[in-house]
Specification:
About 25% of the residues lie in helices and about 25% in strands. It contains eleven helices and 18 strands. The radius of gyration is 20 Å and the shape is globular.
Length: about 350
């Protein structure tokens, strides 16, 4: 089978590998769609810096936002069958360690990211994926497979907002127009959150946000983020601010957008220390700071939201490339930055 591997920074290759055979409780899936994430690009370039112990270990088979169709299953599989349309969980967990037995799968002592950092599970820029059956989720018949490949980034945004608490009375400000922000916002809207304010710099991406449920659009090249958020929240600030930008230079301004006793949710990595961060602004007003790097089992919830018509993530797919042009797809992350949200690589 063909796979894409980053052998070292700026050394991206498509190579042949042996097609895996599923073990007793494993599932072999033919990949149909894989989205390109900013993390994939940073690993490819060698610029990812998430701190000691979180470095990618080259060579890396990239890809963690994906969907496909089951081709073969192990002898002990009982839930997943050949022909099932599926996605996988956001990472590997063993299910047997102390953390897993406590239900804290994201803290699994034997956990592995998929296609990114540390000793990762081989990723989904490949014609086939091998996954344990218990980490594979069926995609409902009325959910498109390419839309299902968007669940991973959307689930990160939703996980953070859910931890802050979703109610119809709460106002949500989303800063950044990437897939985590847009997807999380769409899912929060699908669960009934109140007024939603989307902040960005590109009108094309902001309009995609409108399709996904944003009530108010703020283009910071023309308007003040703080002024608009205060105006739309009666001078109080947003109950929840989801900052997906990873931009340390606006951190203090972002803090000012959170209402007293509100929540600042940060899923975007800064990849460096934040100098002169005014944390006192949050502390004195009893605000809560929530880090959100994602968690297992969110996939099922998003599949339900999509299946029952509460969320449609497909407007986030702005560009498509066949797997044969995957290197050009990676180049397009930069060249089409003004308009692209999610670049999808299609295998079939």
């Amino acid at each position: 089978m063909k796979v894409m591997v980053a052998y070292a920074p700026n050394d991206l290759r498509i190579v042949e590998m042996e097609k895996p055979v599923p073990g007793p409780r494993e599932t072999l899936i033919k990949v149909h769609h894989t989205g390109i994430c900013a993390t994939d690009v940073a690993i490819m370039k060698g610029t990812l810096t998430l701190g000691e112990g979180n470095e990618p270990i080259y060579p890396v088979r990239l890809g963690h936002e994906w969907s496909g169709v089951v081709e073969a299953v192990g002898s002990e599989n009982w839930r997943i069958k050949p022909g099932d349309r599926v996605i996988s969980d956001t990472g590997y967990s063993c299910g047997e360690c102390e953390m897993c037995l406590m239900g804290q799968y994201q803290n699994c002592e034997n956990g592995r990211a998929i296609g990114t950092i540390r000793d990762c599970w081989p990723g989904a820029f490949a014609e086939y994926m091998l996954m344990p059956e218990r980490l594979v989720f069926k995609v409902p018949d009325n959910v498109a497979l390419d839309a299902a490949a968007l669940i991973e980034p959307a689930s990160i945004g939703l996980y953070g907002v859910e931890r802050a608490g979703i109610t119809p009375r709460k106002k949500l400000a989303v800063i950044g127009t990437g897939p985590i922000g847009l997807g999380g916002m769409a899912c929060a809207k699908g669960q009934g959150i109140g007024k939603t304010i989307l902040v960005g710099r590109k009108d094309v991406k902001l309009e995609i946000g409108r399709k996904l449920g944003a009530d108010i659009l703020v283009n910071t090249t023309r308007e003040s983020m703080i002024e608009v958020i205060m105006r739309e929240t009666d001078g109080k600030g947003a109950d929840i601010v989801l900052d997906t930008t990873g931009d340390a230079s606006i951190f203090n301004d972002v803090c000012k957008c959170v209402r007293s006793s509100g929540c600042l949710v940060i899923p975007g990595f800064y990849e460096k220390p934040i100098l002169n961060a005014d944390l006192d602004n949050l502390i004195v007003r009893n605000c809560t700071l929530i880090g959100a790097a994602g968690t297992p089992n969110m996939g099922r919830k998003l599949l339900d939201l999509m299946s029952y018509g509460h969320v449609d993530l497909t407007p986030m797919i702005t560009d498509r490339f066949p797997f044969s042009q995957v290197k050009e797809a990676f180049d397009a992350v930069s060249s089409r930055n003004d308009s692209r949200v999610k670049i999808m690589v299609d295998f079939v």
